[in-house]
Design goal:
single chain; mainly alpha; Formate dehydrogenase/DMSO reductase fold; two-stranded antiparallel sheet; 16 helices
């Protein structure tokens, strides 16, 4: 079935998937994703019905928690997919072609998952129209909304071009630069918060772009490895570009993380002691576990199954790292009065954790349904036929 020339799952294919689910033939991954979506929706309903005060562990001392971390995490995943799509087409066209539609599609649905998580934190999403009635161009949040809308249009356009065999270098370059503008603006949103030294830095926009590249590389490596196994492609030929990009991403992450930490430790602003307070975690987890161990793992093997494991390891550690970044800024209170703790501690509630589960499950369900329907394969076959190879 086609919608504006874009392949979408046929009704019969969707019915077949639904039948498989009902009869217990859908596979463990899809069942786990559906269960995660179910309990996630329950948690989100509880958040909106009972209110944040009864379900969320954020407070006046820690206004941003796991929901914001999840939003940033999935937003950076989406950006990373766009970056990999760009570098794949430019430098590794033949090796990358079988994965193009899958990767840019995941870029779209991870962006949707990011908004999904953010909506659970905003409370009254029905009042978002006020953004249009009273815009504030001086705020990075205003430009975030503008760039994010442009970004979604650009990557959707890129997906349509890939699926309809009208791949345009102009659209690809446009999506690449819009992704840079969009998510560096997201970094500037944190980097311009002068009252929070842990955020306040000109490095933050660059930090977000480098980390987006790493997380996107990890997710796309998983997609590529699973596709190689499914289609029985040459592992060495098709997975080599993803290994190369992962190593580059780890190097960039090490560079920006190291210098962000060093600059923070040398600062003498009020509240800069948060860098000393979090130093052990920043070194042992933020550098050793998040960056060095994945690099060592990459040197230990290059099979599809091993790369799936490495990709999952990086994605898991990056989620914690994003939460450490968001929450770390609130460890030292801005205003210190007699009844306020010297160090503020935060642990997400079960409802906040289930928002993460819901966002991840949403991505997995959409991807699995499209994969099982053969949409990505049909698009590849059509491109090959148009080039006279079938």
């Amino acid at each position: 079935m086609q919608l504006f020339g874009v392949l979408i799952p046929e009704k019969g294919q969707l019915m077949t998937t639904a039948t498989d689910v009902a009869k217990g033939r859908a596979g463990l991954t899809l069942y786990a994703s559906l269960f995660g979506l179910l309990i996630g929706f329950y948690a989100i309903a509880a958040i909106f019905i009972q209110g944040h005060a009864h379900t969320i562990n954020t407070s006046n001392l820690v206004p941003w928690g796991l929901q914001i971390s999840t939003y940033i995490y999935f937003a950076l995943l989406s950006t990373g997919c766009t970056f990999v799509n760009f570098f794949g087409h430019v430098f590794f066209e033949k090796q990358y072609k079988p994965f193009a539609s899958r990767i840019i599609f995941v870029g779209i649905i991870t962006a949707i998952a990011a908004f999904f998580s953010l909506a659970t934190e905003m409370g009254r999403i029905d009042r978002m129209y006020n953004f249009l009635l009273s815009p504030n161009p001086k705020s990075p949040m205003f430009w975030m909304a503008i760039w994010y809308t442009t970004y979604l249009i650009a990557i959707t356009w890129e997906y349509i071009n890939i699926q309809t065999n009208r791949h345009s270098n102009r659209v690809m370059w446009g999506a690449f630069f819009v992704a840079i503008f969009t998510h560096s603006t997201l970094g500037s949103l944190l980097g311009s918060v002068s009252s929070r030294v842990y955020y306040y830095s000109a490095l933050m926009p660059i930090y977000f772009l480098f980390i987006a590249f790493l997380t996107g590389c990890s997710l796309t490596t998983i997609i590529a490895a699973m596709t190689v196994k499914q289609k029985k492609l040459d592992e060495n030929f098709h997975l080599h570009p993803f290994i190369t990009l992962l190593k580059v991403g780890l190097g960039l992450a090490l560079l920006i993380t190291f210098w962000r930490t060093m600059i923070g430790l040398s600062a003498h602003l009020e509240g800069s002691e948060v860098f000393s307070l979090t130093l052990i975690n920043s070194v042992l987890f933020g550098i050793v576990v998040v960056i060095i161990i994945p690099y060592v793992l990459l040197k230990m093997g290059k099979s599809a199954n091993w790369l799936i494991f490495v990709g999952l390891f990086i994605m898991g550690t990056q989620l914690k790292a994003r939460n450490d970044l968001v929450v770390g800024a609130f460890k030292i209170p801005v205003f210190r009065v007699y009844d306020m703790p010297e160090v503020v501690h935060y642990a997400p509630s079960i409802y906040e954790n289930l928002v993460v589960v819901a966002s991840a499950s949403l991505v997995m369900v959409l991807y699995i349904v499209f994969e099982r329907s053969g949409v990505f394969e049909a698009g590849t076959s059509r491109r090959s036929a148009d080039h006279g190879t079938v």
